[in-house]
Amino acid sequence: DRPGLHACQHASEIADSLRDFGQRPIARLDSLGLLGPNLIGVHAVHLAEEDIQRLTLHRCSVAHCPTSNMKLASGAAPAARLLDQGLAVGLGSDGAASNNRLDLFREMHQASLLAKLSTGDASALPARQALRMATLNGARALGLDEEIGSLLPGKAADICAIRIDNPDELPCFDPVSHVVYVIGRHAVSDVWVDGQQRLERGKLLQITNTELLGIARLWQNRFRQ
Q1: Alpha helix positions (H), 33-145
Q2: Which residues, including other chains, have CB under 8 Å from residue 102's CB and lie 6 or more apart?
C-alpha cells in the first residue's frame, strides 16, 4: 500500500510549518524520512523549486486534484512542471465536500485547462498527457502500473467504452482531444473491471439503476435530517 499524504494544499500550511519547525513542509517530511517512492503527495499546490527537487530526488508521486483546488481557492499545482521532472502525477478528485462530481473526465478537462492558464502556455499539459494522468500515470503512482493502467496482454482488462455520436458532441477530429475537452462521464456506455462487465449500454449489471437511486435518496434524506 502507498500512503497518500495531503501536502502543501494551502499557503497557510507553508507559513505554519516555517513558524513551528523552521522548515517548509516537504523539507520537514524529508527530515523525518517520509519521502520516498511509496509516498503519494496529494494536492502539492504550493511548491517551491526546492520542494520539487526533493520530490524528484526521492521519486515520490503526486495526486493532482484540480477541481478541488479551484473550489477551495487553494491555487494551481505545478502539474506540468512535475510531469517534466518525470514524477508520476495522477489525477484525484479529493472528497465530495470539495468536489461535487467526483468525475475523472472533469478532472482531465480541468487539469489541462488549469495548467494552460497558470503557466500562460497554451501547449502545457496537452490532451494526451491528461489522459495518461487518468490512466497509466495513476497506476504508476499507486505502484500498480504492471497490473493496470493500459491495455496490454497480462494486465487486468479494465476498460471503459465511450460513445461519441450525440449531435452536440460532433464532429470529432481527434478522439483523445474529444475525450478530454468535449465529452463527460455521461458518454460511458460500457465498463469492464478485470474482464468482468459491470455496465452494459448504461445499465448497471451487479445492481440495478433503480436500486442505486434508492440508496442515493436514502442518504440524501439522512443528511437533510
Answers
A1: 49-57, 66-71, 79-84, 104-119, 127-134, 136-141
A2: 93, 96
Residues of the chain with pLDDT under 50: none
Residue 187 C-alpha cell reads as: 458518454
The C-alpha cell that represents 190 in the structure block: 460500457
Residue 79 phi, psi (nearest 5)? -60, -45
Predicted confidence (pLDDT) per residue in 175-206, tens digit:
999 999 999 999 999 999 999 999 999 998 98
The partner residues of 188 in beta bridges, in order of sequence, read: 162
CB-based burial, 25-62: b 16+ in 10 Å, e otherwise? bbbbbbeeebbeeebbbbbbbbbeeebbebbeebebbb
Retrieve residue 220's grid coordinates. Answer: 440524501
